[in-house]
Structures are given as C-alpha cells and as structure tokens.
Amino acid sequence: MFNALIRTHHITSRKKVTKLKQAADATQVFALLRSGSSPGIMYVEGEEKGVRQWVDAVHNLRYKDYQLVARPAAVQHENEPTKESEVRPGLHETETVSDFGKQLQDRGVYAWWRKAMGYAKE
C-alpha cells in the first residue's frame, strides 16, 4: 500500500470534487478531502499505480497553492489501523482539520501526517 498527502489553499469547487471522486473510483484508491475553507488537505491511499494516477489527476486540476507535501511512498503505520479504517475505495470528505486528523489517526498515520503538514518536528 502507498499513500500521499496534498495541501492546497482550499477545496470549494464541487465540479473539481466530482472530478476527484471520478478519479478515486477509476483508480480504486481511498481519498480523504478536507474541504470548505482553508487549508484544503487531500490524503490518498491504495496501490502504487492508483495513488500516482490520483495525484496526477489532482495536479491537473490546477488547485491554487498546490503542494505535494508527501510524495507517493509505501505506507508506514505508527500503530495498527482500526477496523473502521479499512481501505474502502472512493472519495470521502470532512469539513474540519480535527476530524481529518482523527481519521488519519484511525488509519495509523497520524504522526506522519502531522510531520508532513509541519505541525510537528518528529
């Protein structure tokens, strides 16, 4: 399994979110968006090819202040993912950074996310 993390200024365009959903379905990846106000955060997890293709699809949508803060790489779990975090392909959205973090904590990649976002040094 691979994952990647993208940060943008914001994610508000429903048209772009629809494109992201289509890309997640086509590539069979789990994608989590923090949409609404700033910052826009996107987490993707799945097979290497699917993750890379989904990241390319996001890049092609030309989001404002697009930053690939964690390039596609093998997932390194800090702890065992919870049952609720099983990879379910498709696009999932949340409106708060705290809920986004909670979902990544459930997936066992919370410290990785905090470091990539610049919230923590180690």
How would you describe what is shown here?
- There is one protein chain.
- Strands 4-1-3-2-5 form a five-stranded mixed beta sheet, sandwiched between helices.
- It has 122 residues and is an alpha+beta fold.
- The model has no long low-confidence stretch (mean pLDDT 91).
- Helix content is 37%, strand content 26%.
- α1 (14-27) runs antiparallel to α2 (48-60).
- It is globular and about 35 Å long.
- It has one domain (2-117): Alpha-Beta Plaits (2-Layer Sandwich), CATH 3.30.70.100.
- InterPro entries: RWDD2A-B_C (IPR059181).
Topology:
Blueprint: E1 2-8, H1 14-27, E2 30-34, E3 40-46, H2 48-60, E4 67-74, E5 90-94, H3 97-106, H4 110-117
Parallel strand pairs: 2-5
Antiparallel strand pairs: 1-3, 1-4, 2-3
Radius of gyration: 13 Å
Rounded average pLDDT: 91
Q: What topology, given as strand order, has the largest sheet?
A: 4-1-3-2-5
**How many separate helices?**
4
Unreliable residue stretches? none
What's the helix-strand series? EHEEHEEHH
How much helix, percentage-wise, in residues?
25-40%
Percent in strands: 25-35%
Tally of distinct domains: 1
CATH topology: Alpha-Beta Plaits
The CATH level-2 architecture is identified as 2-Layer Sandwich
InterPro entries: RWDD2A-B_C
